[in-house]
């Protein structure tokens, strides 16, 4: 989220599209209720189903799963056509005025540079014209036909309300009503907030969905302001922390990158990281990259990481592929190339697409270790549970070890919420039986592995032997110790960069913020964005002061928000060119003639004069990007792409299937179905009564939603002779499930051109373990393909067929 | 013995002649009657305990409210069954006859105990028949309404509005049957010599002569016209 | 809102409840009515009436209130089947004191589809039909703050409360044969905490405080709804039962039946009134009169005796017939 949860109370219009905030984030949703109750804010929901969020919305429109880009581009088109643009913002704070290379173009649904063989783009044309001064060319009048604005205008001109109706199945009048409501928020005294989650991410072009809304928000001038923002509602309580801490195969904590094989040495690696400013006077924040990186390396290997050995750069793994995402891992496992799998707090046979493939993959392992408080389906994948897990136990040779862990309620630590707040929590109960904290288990394993390396050697033992492990009890690091390590501390006295006599942190002291990080080895810090969470003042995450001057919703003294305790990202953009708030009633920070000050921590150098430095300091041009240059694999603008399994062909290019650059493994391509065989669109989602696959172990949750079902419209029920509460069979090219039928007018068939599209909703919470009734989830059916940029599986749009089940499912 | 009885039950017979005693109820019938009577008394006490707060103390007789609550309907069933047996035996002789009308029209004499002016009667007089039919009808009403309000086993049997009517009907029927019961018991006591019909099974000849002369005559064979005997 | 136990009634409101432990401050002395106890001593003090307001228009049907209720009351609702609807359990049960009920509604006036979600449960009527119907002394009590509570020790499980309630709320347990329903968390209120469901409700669709405050709050909510085009938005605090201490804000207050058959004009059924009123007095009187009358008549009046002459007549009759035979 660019803004914290609490800020949503400041909004005038909430659009929940690509998510179901009331059901999946009920507690956060309270801020929507606040905005409605205290500001008269309106709520719009766009969802294939009339959800519980829609039940409290002011306006709802249905949409065909996987067609959001059309809706969003049409919304941008409408804003441009109807002059609902925050012009000053767009001109100065976005890259609208920058000039793009002549070679860049779009045709038949594809951008310039497409190579069908490689399923990839040559992105060299997707960039600005760089002038002789080394800076990007610009035309502040926005008249140059090659400026981003005019390219965008042309790009979105195809997306008309009629196209929305034809592709999305959203009735035109509903679309128009919604864009009118949105358009009002281009005024400086009105803000819209976007709340989204998996309805946008779980598509083969998920990242582009989000780009679409981000662009719309920029055009309305809603980024960086109170009550605005792009608010990704994160999933698990600490999933934000997980991404922050770099639990992705291609990331280092704090969104630094794991080197690739091509970056064989430190200098090569660094050369492509320290971005050079693209506009005069601009500071590019990533120029600090070496400080963060060196401090990270020092936190890993301490005194063994030196300037001489390039901070032990050689000990970092180097990627041979863009990422070892989970899809790839299971592909490899299924190919027999992975033999041991540690599965920590994850239930892949229920959570992951194409359960058949996942089960086959697990069956090929030698060893599967699960670390979980519960007996998961994954740990029991080899057990035959009748139709619910019909495996041949005797043929599975995988050895399974279940290590019982504590749950979040049984240990201390911090959770990072969607609003980037690191909130400390305290154990609320004692763990049962032999359950141990995850850190305890990992420390035990690590110590034993290190011993093996010590005793027996091995390939590249250094990173393991030299790993810093200075915890009071090496077999049981505490949450406090880990938090301090993430924050960082001075390894030697650290002096001010401009005034070398001014001591900022004495040796051994906790650092106050990442401004104190150094690239000379004098500081260490595990995760630069977390710097400030545990300083010499103690545990900042444990603060619980809810004072809030001017009711801004920033709550600067409540816990800690990364980065730098900043609550609203890009808050410099809440003020105009002179540094005055666009809307005095929404003041966040203002330029007082000498520095920036206000209710939030400025997202700009406090002394950077307005006009000198652009507000989007993480970008080389200091501007936000309506045109993303080469940063996205599938295009600098979002363009409509159908899901891999779609009931209708792409309107721009009949032959284009799915996202043309998404990675597809060969065996999975064979398992895509077509609409002749599988005429219905399925989408999967969660229900408010359950959390994934583990609350079904809880009797009360199980009582509140006891049994697996699918949701269908009365029209489809009538067509197929399905009765309310009856049992149905749903199948895709990859598998088959049985479920109870919930027939509801909340699902409507969508008229997409001349095709009537029926949507089947499949909630995901059932399995064969736990207290609830045994059932399936959607993932016996879902396709094994992910987003082109980040590999999030396409869970939200796939094709199935349905029929009443002849035999009643055993229950 | 007799080919066709009109005023008496098979089994009714003159037991001794000097003095005359007439057998009115077999042992089984008497036992059954007392089961019925005991059930009704239990029902009355347990029902009345729930009927009015001032009588709630009666639950103590049964070991508290919970026991009273579950016991009552079961005893109701017992009552119904035992009364059913009684009913099957007795209904024929309780069918109205022309002389009943005369009897009713002389109800004043009945109350004053001046039976000389009354017509000769079979085994039962109109008052008894009224009690018989009244009890029969009310027991049906009570069991019907009682089951509808039987929370423990039939909570969903009828809708709540119906249930409200049922409980009202049950209460009213209960009051009615209690009144009839009082009448019945009082009549049995007031009409001296009656009780022994239900205790020993016999009545004296004089009692039979006075109250149910036709019945006596039939048993004595006076009406018997069959030459073969 | 005060939470000082000495100042006023135990109550909390939308604001945070006290975090200091408080002595239970709601007891026998606060009972103003008790079932089958017509001569109850008057309460020792008058508490400020409290109320739980359920703003249906804010409710997202998340069932957090249901789960909080089960957690707090330590009940274990049954794990049923899915029968093609969102209501689970399918009805109120002795182990589920509150239930979200879902209704799909095509609004003919606006042409919009609506999904109306109502939290069902005891309304804590000022004139409680359950209490009126209950035959067991003290099994149902009403406190001066308006809470209607079942005292299970006194309950005999007859189910009359079910019959008496205009909202179809109480449920008698098959396990212990006692009747259960929402207590308005009287045990929490007694120590200055609001109901568990209100505490859990993420959207503050459930709020708790003095009835007065809640009415003010509700009126503001109705204004907001009217501004959003719900012209018939209103408060559901039915007169017929003297008002309730759990009440609703509805978008369609003119059509409460839309919300899973919320009664249009609830009141204690006249049948129940008749059953508990005239029937009892008249019935008891009739029985009493009959009993006393017959005893008196028995004592004072002349019994219906059989005379010796009649015995003789009988003997003659029998002899004659024997002779004839
Ligand atoms: N109760 C509960 N809450 C949870 C979780 C849980 O399991 N249970 N899980 C947590 C986790 S890990 C996550 S990631 C979040 C997810 O939070 P959400 O993304 O909000 O949850 P979902 O239910 O997966 O999907 C949201 C909605 O997307 C809609 N949708 C499907 N396809 C499309 C589409 O193409 N376009 C649009 N516009 N909408 C579409 C679905 O109908 C659904 O209503 O929830 C978190 N919160
Ligand atoms: N079709 C379809 N599939 C989906 C989705 C969808 O929308 N549609 N959503 C996807 C999304 S967004 C997500 S996040 C995944 C969720 O998939 P998972 O993450 O596999 O789901 P959970 O059930 O949350 O699994 C987490 C496990 O962590 C355990 N756990 C809890 N606390 C701890 C702890 O402290 N330590 C350890 N070691 N374990 C702990 C729990 O017991 C549980 O078994 O599902 C994905 N799958
Ligand atoms: C014939 C079968 C009967 C059945 C099944 C039956 C059942 C019931 C039931 C279920 C109740 C509710 C209380 C409880 O559950 O215990 C009840 C109440 C009552 N019953 Fe019966 N009953 C029967 C017969 C009778 C009879 C014969 C009488 C009269 C003597 C009677 C008098 C009452 C009374 C007075 C109440 C209380 C009603 C009130 O509170 O208004 N019942 N009965
Ligand atoms: C303490 C209570 C009772 C007493 C003292 C009592 C006494 C008697 C007596 C003495 C008779 C014989 C009368 C006769 O032969 O003319 C009789 C008959 C009878 N009693 Fe009872 N009774 C009692 C309770 C009941 C109850 C509760 C019922 C039914 C619910 C009942 C039903 C009958 C019936 C059906 C007869 C046969 C006569 C007839 O059909 O009218 N009695 N009872
Ligand atoms: S995780 Fe818990 S606190 Fe967060 S929204 Fe869900 S229910 Fe509420
Ligand atoms: S709603 Fe029913 S149970 Fe609750 S107080 Fe009113 S009558 Fe009693
Ligand atoms: S079941 Fe209990 S609370 Fe209900 S009426 Fe009977 S005694 Fe009273
Ligand atoms: S007030 Fe208490 S008992 Fe009543 S529904 Fe809420 S949590 Fe349950
Ligand atoms: S907790 Fe609140 S929002 Fe959730 S279902 Fe209950 S009343 Fe509705
Ligand atoms: Mo997630």
Keywords for this structure?
heterotrimer; A: 811 residues; alpha/beta; Barwin-like endoglucanases; six-stranded mixed sheet; 21 helices; 22% helix; B: 229 residues; mainly alpha; Fumarate Reductase Cytochrome B subunit; three-stranded antiparallel sheet; 9 helices; binds ligand MGD; binds protoporphyrin IX containing FE; binds iron/sulfur cluster; binds molybdenum atom
Write up what this structure looks like:
- Chain A is α/β, with parallel strands linked by helices and 811 residues long.
- Chain A has a domain at 666-804: Beta Barrel (Barwin-like endoglucanases), CATH 2.40.40.20.
- Chain A has 21 helices and 33 strands.
- In chain A, the strands form twelve sheets. A six-stranded mixed sheet of chain A has the order 27-29-28-33-26-32. A five-stranded parallel sheet of chain A has the order 3-2-1-8-9, sandwiched between helices. Chain A has a three-stranded parallel sheet with strand order 12-13-14, with no helix packed on it.
- In chain A, a hairpin with a 3-residue loop joins strand 10 and strand 11 (256-257).
- The radius of gyration of chain A is 26 Å and the shape is globular.
- The model of chain A has no long low-confidence stretch (mean pLDDT 96).
- Chain B has a single domain, classed as Transmembrane di-heme cytochromes, Chain C (Fumarate Reductase Cytochrome B subunit).
- Chain B contains nine helices and three strands.
- Chain B is 61% helix and 5% strand.
- The longest helix of chain B is centred in the C-terminal third of the chain and has 31 residues, at 160-190.
- By secondary structure, chain B is mainly alpha-helical.
- Chain C has one domain (28-270): Alpha-Beta Plaits.
- Chain C has helices spanning 64-73, 129-133, 160-164, 186-189, 196-200, 211-227, 270-276, 278-300, 308-324, and strands spanning 31-34, 50-55, 99-106, 113-120, 140-143, 148-150, 171-172, 179-180, 206-210, 234-236, 246-250.
- A four-stranded mixed sheet of chain C has the order 9-2-11-10.
- The termini of chain C are far apart.
- Chains B and C meet through helix 1, helix 2, helix 6, helix 8 and helix 9 of B and helix 3, helix 7, helix 8 and helix 9 of C.
- The complex binds ligand MGD (2 copies), protoporphyrin IX containing FE (HEM) (2 copies), iron/sulfur cluster (5 copies) and molybdenum atom (MO).
- The site of one iron/sulfur cluster (SF4) has 17 residues of chain C, from helix 3.
